[in-house]
Task: structure prediction
Amino acid sequence: TARKQAEQQAMNLARFPAENPNPVLRVAETGTILYANPAGAVLLNAWSSGVGRPVPEDLRKCLADALVAGQREMLELHLDGRTFAITVAPIAEARYVNLYALDITDRKALEDQLRQSQKMEAVGQLAGGIAHDFNNQLTVMRGYCDLILREKEGRENVADWRHHAREIRGAVDRAATLTGQLLAFSRRQMLQPKVINLNEQLKAFSATLERIISENIRLVLNCQDDLWSTSVDPAHFDQAVMNLVLNARDAMPDGGQLTLETRNVELGEDYARRHPGMSPGQHVMIAVSDTGAGMSEETRRRAFEPFYTTKPQGQGSGLGLAMVYGFVKQSRGAVYLYSEPGKGTTFKIYLPRSEISLSPVAPSPKSSQQTLRGDETILLAEDDVGIRQLAVRILEQFGYTVLVTTSPQEALALANDSQRHIDLLITDVIMPGMSGPDLARNIGLARPDLEVLYVSGYTQNAILHHGIVDKDVNLLTKPFGPRELAEAVRRTLDRHKPSPPSGQSGGA
Ligand SMILES: Nc1ncnc2c1ncn2[C@@H]1O[C@H](COP(=O)(O)OP(=O)(O)OP(=O)(O)O)[C@@H](O)[C@H]1O
Ligand SMILES: [Mg+2]
Result:
């Protein structure tokens, strides 16, 4: 009876995989199916195979690899419109693998739906945030413009006008900051990286930072000696640090300590694998730490989302960290945050070490209104009527002769037909029909000494690689004012003028 009992037990056990509602298969090293439970029929049918017959070739390879590696693996198979997650468990000593499958079709569909709805929610929040902030600035501009327009003829109230203009200017700057942060977040910002030492950058900037934090906050600078150099846009780097420092200040209303720290760090393969978005290798790390309020779990999770803010209405736009995130990503780095409620917060930015040695600091000559003038001839191609008219006014005020065109085709025709000498082409980067760079190339064929100044609002275009501007490209970013335009024009025109007495052979 002991034997009978054992037989009974064995039978019971044999029923166990057969009763499994999920497919279970055993496959020999050769690819021959040794066993399939009834639920496994789904897979066998899809493969038009059966016990004693082979699995499909690509799967056989996969299983053989798993056997060699001696490691369990996860696969996803799409069969007859259904998706299976399959655990491949190699049993090396028996030279076969067990497959445990799970139909995840419905779960996947649900996940997709959830992801879609989360995406829609995020987009909605983003659009709402932009609309709200922008409308505020537009209301200011519209209001003051109407006030000016309503003034009676002859009643020349210059003081009022100046005041209104200043208010409009302020609203424009705030709106420009907003678009700047959004571009930063979407990684479409124009970055002009330089190879710099971040210690010096931070030290130079710390005076400004001292001014914006309150007196009861102590600023400590803890810089590593011999810090590696890194390639980064200095102005945007300052902006990112500023955003972190402002947040730290707001988190310490009763005072505390704010620490800026730099370190050389070598990230291993292992670290990079555990931190998505990080590449292994040598990095420069900048940490900004405070002893403030810290963040809740939810805030920690959402902090980098654009327009996510816990600050009262009107005090935070929720774009500070979104800008930091976009900037760091665009600079091929990574940013992490560590925070505990009541203890404080640390942000760590990692930027890749630069192979190149430090860029020489170019002295920026202070240009006066006078030296910005010129009498050259400029061909302007700009399809936006508002910007076109503004540019013409500014350029003529500074003494230039302007040939105005409203499309790249028109500009090309004018350049081809005219015998006039043209010193400079100013063109938008993105225009209907022909890109700015293509226009410049076409005109440049017949006029090799033509200089080009590009105007653009964002980076999705041909003259940039991942938003990084080539060194020999002259670029003016929107929005710009009279001075910025005049300076960019002069800089572009003078670029090849003071040719050094030696070297230049004239390019025959
Ligand atoms: N150092 C910090 N300590 C505690 N909480 C922080 C810190 N930095 C950011 N946060 C939290 O993350 C949120 C988002 O920060 P973010 O800088 O993106 O926007 P904001 O500061 O609210 O507004 P903005 O920077 O646009 O003025 C903040 O509202 C705050 O709740
Ligand atoms: Mg902020």
In short: The first helix runs from residue 2 to 18. Confidence is low (pLDDT under 50) at residues 499-508. The radius of gyration is 32 Å. The pocket of adenosine-5'-triphosphate (ligand 1) is lined by residues 243, 247-248, 251, 290, 292-295, 299, 303, 308-311, 316-322, 345 (CB under 6 Å).
